[in-house]
Amino acid sequence: MLKFFKIIALLEGVSFLVLLANMLIVKNINIDLYKSLLFPIGMAHGILFIAYIILAIMLKFELDWDWKKFSIIILGSLVPFGTFYIEKKYL
User: What is the pTM of this model?
Assistant: First the structure.
């Protein structure tokens, strides 16, 4: 399950960066492309984010993480590049 969590963490981080790039870069270049990409990218990111949180909760009890480590892993999903840092340092 830890290997699956690592994959989800990587995909969640990539989807977050793609969503940010869409909002910051594509929106200024082509508003129609931005609008057409926003829903599928946002939906994919949302599903991956929820999967990340659920898997983190499951692994907290399975691997007996302390609350500090668990909190850092959860907060890593909210920061750009956070999931990459979490995957490298804590997993």
Answer: 0.83
Which three-class secondary structure string do you get for the chain?
CHHHHHHHHHHHHHHHHHHHHHHHHHHHHCHHHHHHHHHHHHHHHHHHHHHHHHHHHHHHHHCCCCHHHHHHHHHHHHCCCHHHHHHHHCC
pLDDT in tens, 7-57: 998 899 899 989 989 989 988 888 888 889 889 999 999 999 999 999 999
CB atoms within 10 A of CB 79: 13
Q: If you search the block for the tokens 């870069």, which residue do you land on?
A: 25
d(CA 34, CA 39): 9
